[in-house]
Amino acid sequence: MVDEIVANAVPSQIEAIASAMTKAHRSMAHKKDLVERIAIDEDCDVKLLNADGVDLRGFDLSAGEKQIFTQALISAVSSVSGRGFPMVVDTPLGRLDIEHRKGVLNHLVQREHQVILLSTNTEVVGEYLSEIAPHVQKKYLVHFERVGEIGQSTVKPGYFENTKGRA
Questions:
Q1: Domain that holds residue 3
Q2: Is this structure's pTM higher than 0.90?
């Protein structure tokens, strides 16, 4: 998917996307010295380069590292395109370790356009919710209920702090 998105970018914007991806990745990742820069070559191959020029994508990245890479790409394309579009992130912290969580949230709240987070009752709560609270405009709780053979979801104003962790 990453290669397809980059391949469809205007070739003159490839360097700008690589630079924006590097900046976004650095703001989210807690291992700031692991990735020196993100490079995109003329064939639109994306590389996560360390200080020695080794492409880290050739190694087995964790699910969290892959998520940060993908979010950096989306953020970069958005910023380079100059178009304001909302970003919807489902389970934004689900695959991330504690060190990455605040970095990702702080990066997302710095976006100029709307960000919608679909969180579980163990993700954007407590200290993480407090961290971004000044940037949160609305909070909703999606409640699922089985009605006979089908499921039904309802949306109400509120959030998990009103349910004592039940979802």
A1: 1-83
A2: no
